[in-house]
Structure to design on (334 residues):
């Protein structure tokens, strides 16, 4: 066969293989894009929190217009799409030149969203939480989805550390200074079991059901530290007793506060705030642009976050239940 003919055949084989490649297989190759998306969109994170995830991709020629990684699970024989535990902001995002762009009801992104939504498998229930840069409510309301606004708190890391600290409420600064005088900060897994125990007690003390599995949390914490995308911080008093814990994760733009706990037996009012201040400084050193307190609908907790100089941001909780069995289950058990 002449060389020209061989080249044509090779091109055809390449094009055919590309056509056969699933969206998920294609997404796995887009390492440059992964670095520009939230941490929770990265394949290793999705593999860690879900046994069954896939992704919808909207594109024009070679340009990606949007992506939507989603996680699936089966309960009572019903296909459910929802964000796994400790995986916020997993939702459709709109892209331009491989960068996330803001989307709302006036952004003319409906065609991209339609293309993404058409790729979802048949499901009886969907519950997702969007990024703070996604506020396109009409597309979902028009299709019968329920929309609820949720709150998070974000601190811009543009100011220098001295100015960030000055932006804290006076009482926060006072408690942090007191804790600094009597505490050291360590990092790592040495006291992981104690942290898990204290984290569970944070819920049981309030009479709340504890939804986390110790093995699941251990997997997330250890994997994130291994991937250099997270750290467990421990505050210790003069007797080397742990008084507070903080677990944060980060991507190329933001650091997220995912988990925290205090030891009520050795508690110091400033220890938790000291760890947050330590994490904020680390985020600044890493060149990140935002520290995300990762939401709270609890007014008391929200006020604590606001006193770090953070701004309140909204994101969307989008849901729809088509399965009558799942509707009954949620009404009875939540």
């Amino acid at each position: 066969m002449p060389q020209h003919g061989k080249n044509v055949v090779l091109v055809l084989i390449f094009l055919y293989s590309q056509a056969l490649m699933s969206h998920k297989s294609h997404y796995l190759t887009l390492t440059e894009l992964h670095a520009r998306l939230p941490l929770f969109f990265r394949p290793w994170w999705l593999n860690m929190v879900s046994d069954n995830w896939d992704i919808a991709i909207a594109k024009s020629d070679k340009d990606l217009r949007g992506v939507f990684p989603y996680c699936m699970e089966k309960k009572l024989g019903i296909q459910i799409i929802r964000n796994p535990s400790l995986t916020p902001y997993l939702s459709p995002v709109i892209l331009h030149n491989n960068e996330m762009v803001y989307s709302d009801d006036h952004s003319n992104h409906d065609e991209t969203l339609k293309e993404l939504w058409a790729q979802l498998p048949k499901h009886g229930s969907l519950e997702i939480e969007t990024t703070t840069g996604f506020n396109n409510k009409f597309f979902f309301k028009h299709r019968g989805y329920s929309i609820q606004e949720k709150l998070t708190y974000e601190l811009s890391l543009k100011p220098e550390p001295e100015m960030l600290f000055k932006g804290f409420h006076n009482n926060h600064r006072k408690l942090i200074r007191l804790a600094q005088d009597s505490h050291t900060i360590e990092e790592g897994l040495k006291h992981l079991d104690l942290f898990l125990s204290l984290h569970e007690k944070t819920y049981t003390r309030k009479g709340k059901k504890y939804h986390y599995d110790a093995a699941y949390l251990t997997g997330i914490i250890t994997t994130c530290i291994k991937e250099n995308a997270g750290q467990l911080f421990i505050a210790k008093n003069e007797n080397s007793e742990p008084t507070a814990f903080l677990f944060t994760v980060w991507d190329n733009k933001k650091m997220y506060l995912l988990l925290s706990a205090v030891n009520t037996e050795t508690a110091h009012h400033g220890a938790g705030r000291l760890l947050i201040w330590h994490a904020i400084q680390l985020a600044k050193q890493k060149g990140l642009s935002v520290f995300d307190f990762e939401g709270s609908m609890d007014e008391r907790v929200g006020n604590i976050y606001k006193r770090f100089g953070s701004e309140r941001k909204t994101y969307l909780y989008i849901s729809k239940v088509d399965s009558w069995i799942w509707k009954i289950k949620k009404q009875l058990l939540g």
About this structure: Confidence is low (pLDDT under 50) at residues 11-20.
